[in-house]
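Hi all, long-time lurker, first post. I run a small reading group and we've been trying to get comfortable going from sequence to structure in the token notation. Rather than ask abstract questions, I figured I'd post a concrete chain and ask someone more experienced to write out its structure so we can walk through it together at our next meeting. Sequence below, copied exactly:
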Amino acid sequence: MSSLKEIKGRIASVKSTQKITSAMKMVASAKLRKAQNRIEQFLPYEKRLKSILDNFLASDMDSFATPLSEERETKRVAVVVLSSNSGLCGAFNSNILNLMSRTLDAYRAKNIEILVYPFGKKVEENLKKAKIPVETKGTYQKLVDSPDYEVIKAVADELIEDFLNKKIDRVDLVYNHFKNTAVQIPTCEQFLPLKLSKPDGKQIPGDYIVEPNRDAALNALLPKTLRSKVFSVLLDSVAAEHGARVMAMQIATDNADDLLEGLTIQLNKQRQQAITSELLDIIGGSEALK
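-- Answer (accepted) --
Happy to help. Here is the structure in token form:
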């Protein structure tokens, strides 16, 4: 059985850890609010851009064709994987790494060459430790901490250019979708080739007067839509990371409370036992003197 000194030391240690987890929760909450604000600021632009594209496609989709939607035999695929740079965020990283592993294994089983764009330190470390025979392209750890649209635009343009030049035949996005603070959904989504479809229930609008022409407008809108998609996925992943960390630190703090309660009960029992033992010694000595 532990001594009083050992129990007091454990209580002090747990209280110290609890202060750290509580502080980390507050920091993660502040970062989550900031990430949510960035999504809320960017979302109207993305929705409006997609709405304009949908209107064009709904009015005359059958007559429009773009090389960005070309379906061809998949010989080489690019997979953009988004994780975090640090841990202590629950199952956030393990979920995305497991999804990445399943995705890569599926392509390797078909003898498809794989190119990975790792966004986040955890992805890079996992690829190195697992020694997965895939090619990696660049390092984007800074973007996870500080999302930058211009850098994302360059990455999206590189993916688009490689697809058009047939250097890659498909692009997938693997990330955690932020549903709410408690729920992050691991998602694998096809980025290229672009799936063009008429929106369900979309009323076909009247004819637009477009300069110089409809195809030119659509060809200008599509790259913008793809760039905004990659940036929104990054913002989504960042928000999911901070949401997962808030929950992980909350659970750790609550567990510390439960542990402190158990240790306090154990400490009181040990004190009571020591007091009882001392009383018995005194009574025994008193009886011996009679």
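A couple of things your group might point at:
The chain is about 65% helix and 15% strand.
The chain has a mean pLDDT of 89.
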